[in-house]
Amino acid sequence: MMSLAPPRARPYLGGMDHRSHFYLSQAGRRIEAPLHAQARFAIGDVVRHRLFDFRGVIFDIDPVFANSEEWYEAIPQDIRPRRDQPFYHLLAESEDSSYVAYVSQQNLLEDSTGGPVDHPSVPQLFETFASGRYRLRRSLTH
What we know:
By secondary structure, the protein is mostly beta strands. It has a domain at 42-140: Hemimethylated DNA-binding domain (SH3 type barrels, Roll), CATH 2.30.30. The chain has helices at residues 69-73, 122-125; strands at 19-24, 29-34, 46-49, 55-62, 87-93, 98-104, 108-110, 126-130, 133-136. Strand 5 (87-93) and strand 6 (98-104) form a beta hairpin. The longest helix is centred in the middle third of the chain and has 5 residues, at 69-73. The chain is globular.
């Protein structure tokens, strides 16, 4: 039996592009990203790298790859991550050093050690460490 009800109208989006565009000087290019992205981790989470032996605390998240082409091309092709996923900025630590890392979502796992990250910049960005995660300094939140 055919319905006599009018078909549901789709909202008119006025030709809107469902992507965001912004220029990032660090990348030296215009970045295109979805308006909504699903990040598996949050600022303050302690994570570890899936392939390499380091861990860190997340201090920023890009919805898609937003670094330079040179940085991306320097990754061996057989382990190069997809660009269309969140990338995380970490205050990272390994056995012998601390540094800032930029890691794709596909290469991060929850850290199971439960301990704090030993990085000299942690106190500048975070207040406390409890239950396996850091709390961002109140003065840095929106």
